[in-house]
From TrEMBL:
This is Class I SAM-dependent methyltransferase. Gene3D superfamilies: Vaccinia Virus protein VP39. The keyword Protein transport does not apply. Residues 1-37 form the signal peptide. Keywords: Signal. InterPro entries: SAM-dependent_MTases_sf. Coiled coil: none annotated. It holds the Pfam family Methyltransf_24. It comes from the Eukaryota.
Length: 323
């Protein structure tokens, strides 16, 4: 998808860095403190996740329950994905967490931006198939998802639709046709301008309780993408943007979430942000995942586990979104 960045935008990115850093620190404080009336216990990611910040202990506990419940099926999914995983760009853990969250929340409609080579698509479709219901619409300006088609051929019929083109255009067409999804999986062009478009044109359009995941929020290897300067992605100055800080796009969305009173269930298990949570997750994977899958992994070289998970319109939760 093409969203050209202009010189004024790059200037805005620089001049606004200090204010966004302050807001990011405040978001981090909320995540640490579990502020804004946190519930006594996080029973699930649906009907009980009604807090503005979810404590890390509750996140670990909930995933412990989900690994115990769905670990065997998840192992089968990873074996399914292995022949098609070579070009994937997600860590094993975040692929697993996405599958488990989809099993737990039971969405009827999922959108994915952008699947690229389709590794995450395998886990989404497998979760919907294991749930026994649900449909996936994937948006991208390339058709690389065919690289994974052999691993999901039996899951595509009546469950998958691919929309080719620039999502800045196709999004509005599909929204008009089918409405907004129950679950939105975002992993596209990572920039401040993309984050602004998400918050002003996409996330603000939901009218019902919705689950969202945004990839590469806590990825210490880069700051953001720039169409005019591809090398910008590799120039993260840790003196300016320390490893615990969200990426440019992630900070933009985090700033927006800070002022959304109806947002809840905000958490990440990123190693750069919550190393103790990351270690706890790996410990439970040792217990509940089969040894051969756990040790080999799909992409053991990728450790960032950078996804940010959150929910919107929590107070307007309906019977379709709860479980």
């Amino acid at each position: 998808m093409v969203l050209k960045s202009s010189s004024p935008a790059r200037q805005l990115r620089t001049t606004g860095a200090h204010s966004r850093l302050a807001l990011c620190c405040l978001v981090a404080a909320l995540l640490t403190a579990g502020a804004c009336g946190a519930r006594k216990r996080l029973k699930g990611f649906g009907e009980s996740a009604r807090e503005s910040a979810v404590s890390q202990a509750n996140v670990v506990q909930r995933y412990r329950e989900l690994y115990a419940k769905y670990g065997s099926q998840l192992t089968d999914v990873k074996k399914r994905a292995a022949p098609c995983a070579a070009k994937g760009q997600s860590s094993d853990m975040e692929l697993e967490l996405s599958y488990l969250r989809l099993r737990d929340t039971q969405p009827n409609m999922v959108w994915e931006w952008s699947p690229n080579h389709g590794l995450s698509t395998i886990f989404i479709l497998a979760a919907l198939a294991d749930n026994g219901h649900g449909h996936l619409i994937a948006f991208d300006e390339n058709q690389n998802w065919h690289d994974s088609e052999a691993c999901i051929a039996d899951l595509l019929e009546n469950r998958f639709r691919f929309v080719f083109g620039d999502v800045h255009e196709t999004f509005y067409e599909i929204e008009k046709e089918v409405g907004m999804p129950d679950y939105l999986f975002l992993d596209s062009w990572h920039s401040h301008l993309m984050g602004v478009w998400y918050t002003t044109e996409v996330l603000s359009r939901f009218t019902k309780h919705t689950y969202v995941s945004l990839h590469d929020v806590h990825n210490p290897t880069f700051w953001g993408d720039d169409r005019d300067d591809p090398s910008f992605r590799d120039r993260r100055d840790l003196k300016v943007w320390p490893s615990w800080m969200a990426t440019e796009e992630g900070m933009t969305v985090s700033d927006w979430l800070l002022y959304r009173a109806d947002a809840c269930g905000v958490y990440t298990t990123a190693q750069s942000r919550w190393p103790s949570t990351y270690d706890a997750m790996n410990t439970m994977r040792t217990i509940y995942m089969y040894k051969d899958v756990r040790e080999e992994g799909l992409h053991p070289e990728i450790q960032e586990n950078s996804t940010l998970f959150f929910e919107l319109l929590c107070e307007s939760n309906s019977s379709e979104a709860s479980h």
